[in-house]
Amino acid sequence: MIPQSFIQDLLNRVDIVDVVGRFVQLKKGGANFMGLCPFHNEKSPSFTVSPTKQFYHCFGCGAHGTAISFLIEYSGMGFVEAVKDLAQGVGMVVPEREDNIPLAQRQEKQAKSMALSDVMSRANDFYRAQLRSAQPAIGYLKGRGLTGEIAARFGLGYSPDEWDSLREVFPEYENEALVESGLVIDKSEEESGAGGRRKRYDRFRGRVMFPIRNTKGQVIGFGGRVMDGGEPKYLNSPETPLFQKGSELYGLFEARQAIREAGYALVTEGYMDVVALAQLGFPQAVATLGTACTPVHVQKLLRQTDQVIFSFDGDNAGRRAARRALEACLPHASDNKTIKFLFLPKEHDPDSYVREMGAPAFEEQIREALPLSQFLLREIIGENDLRTPEGRAHAQFAAKPMLQALPASSLRLQIVRSVAQATQSTPAEIEALFELEKPVARLRAAPPRAKRTAPAGLERQIMRLLVAHPQLSADLDAEALQAVASIAPDRAEMLSFLVGAAQSMGEQANFASLVEHLREAGPEFDSMIAEIASESESEFDVVRAEMAGAIRQSKIRAIEEEMQVLVASNLRTEEERNRYRELMQSKEVLKRQPGAAMAG
């Protein structure tokens, strides 16, 4: 877990205008910056970035957040990944509590990562430059129907058919970073009987090069394709500190906006499928990197879109790949996500199908793709004869690990019912037999929880002011908090959390930092944050005076409520009468001092 103090310090150093400006063209508009929203299609700018609040807000679709949440939503990063990306940009090293790595080691690790990234970037520039004069490679790409524009968009290149062509761009060819990045192979000749000398040579030779980018657009690996029918047809970068095949998807960086516009991501089996489909009008395509689809791949895709469609060749290899993809999807299947599986005829891959049958025919195939539930049932039934007890038992045996992998949800219940019907069982029997976590079919529905009312009136005004200007929390004393809590006892816990969070941040507290802190409280503050994000900034002195007035009114109201209680008791004792007179005096003092200090 990253300390909250580090998040606050990071957001104080990062400028959200610079962060968003890397991905969105922004223009100055008054106190804020404006641009076209990257989260929905629009023709006129409704997306604002506030340098004062360090916050973005779209008046069109309602998207809003800090620099951290922008990277999460736009690039599909996880929270920790987004924090690390921002920290690297301002020279900060993220503390890692869980493994207690000393700062020096973390700095060394970060420096090595930056060195590898630099090496990959320089190699990519070299390969791209080589392609311009490599006629066989240009002819091959043209033969596959690719234009120069699409080749430039994906940064395609060419590795010369020489043992050490990278010496041209890396005079320091002995640099260990070349080996660690996977660009160069360092092989001892001792094994082949040629003595103890070491020989270095380029990993990629005579291949069309496909750069693999991470969600930040950095080149982290390569895929190289031969053009003459040699083997292996594709050669991928090895696993490195920058590149893990089970976590990365080819083309995701280039496809992000297209995925949002299309409403789905199309997952294919190869580099050329992705590039060719982008050429043919399907730029929302991505591919796994010479490995089976993993749960990490699925999670990454579902951060980008609510619908993922896997496309596989219709041959046996395609069927096996589809089964592995199904298993990877199960832990992430949910009621608000759609996962489908598309199987093309055996003689086709996506590229050849679109070229022969046309884009409309491929779009129809996508629409008719099998939902996850149907594909799962098909895999369960397989060759089993459901007319016999043995066949039904075999089907249930096949179903058990897959149903156990599904999270408890309405979707799982629907699939359980389908399996139960196919195998002549009841949903409750299936859940009991498979020992499913949090069984649904045999539980009575819990009564709906009473909905908590949104804070209103004075307490809501005070909370909004505190969220927008957490520095004001330093002016609050115990009496003020008690007064607010007394008029809104059902919001006391929420107010206490807010004040504690704001005060813990000290003098450097600001809106963006507090918003990240309020994640721990759940969605209770979301509507308030959205309202504040959409409003123009106010002068701090004006805001402070508004807070003073609200607190004064809270104190007056609390006094009046106590006075009513005393009156109801008929002021029988001298103590009660004295207390009543004290309250009257306090109330008059407050009324005469509208601008009095909040500590009153």
Automatic annotation (TrEMBL):
Q: What's written under domain?
A: Contains an N-terminal zinc-binding domain, a central core domain that contains the primase activity, and a C-terminal DnaB-binding domain.
SUPFAM superfamilies from the xrefs? DNA primase core (SSF56731), Zinc beta-ribbon (SSF57783)
- What protein name is recorded for this chain? DNA primase
Q: Which GO terms describe its molecular function?
A: DNA binding; DNA-directed RNA polymerase activity; zinc ion binding
Q: Which domain of life is it from?
A: Bacteria
Q: What is the lineage of its organism?
A: Bacteria, Pseudomonadati, Pseudomonadota, Betaproteobacteria, Burkholderiales
Any idea where the Toprim domain is? 263-345
List the record's Gene Ontology CC terms alphabetically.
Answer: cytoplasm; DNA-directed RNA polymerase complex; primosome complex
| Keyword list, A-Z | Coiled coil, DNA replication, DNA-binding, DNA-directed RNA polymerase, Magnesium, Metal-binding, Nucleotidyltransferase, Primosome, Transcription, Transferase, Zinc, Zinc-finger
Q: Which InterPro entries does the protein's record reference?
A: DNA_helicase_N/primase_C, DNA_primase_core_N_sf, DNA_primase_DnaB-bd, DNA_primase_DnaG, DNA_primase_DnaG_DnaB-bd_dom, DNA_primase_Znf_CHC2, DnaG_bac, DNAG_N
User: Which free-text remark accompanies the cofactor?
Assistant: Binds 1 zinc ion per monomer.
Its subunit composition reads:
Monomer. Interacts with DnaB.
The UniProt entry's sequence similarity note says: Belongs to the DnaG primase family.
- What does the record list as coiled-coil region(s)? 556-593
State where the CHC2-type zinc fingers lie. Answer: 37-61
Annotated PANTHER family: DNA PRIMASE
Pfam families, per the entry: DnaB_bind, DnaG_DnaB_bind, DNAG_N, Toprim_2, Zn_ribbon_DnaG
**What reaction does this enzyme carry out catalytically?**
ssDNA + n NTP = ssDNA/pppN(pN)n-1 hybrid + (n-1) diphosphate
Please list the cofactors this protein needs. Answer: Zn(2+)
* GO biological-process terms attached to the record: DNA replication, synthesis of primer
Role, per record: RNA polymerase that catalyzes the synthesis of short RNA molecules used as primers for DNA polymerase during DNA replication.
Enzyme Commission number(s) from the entry: 2.7.7.101
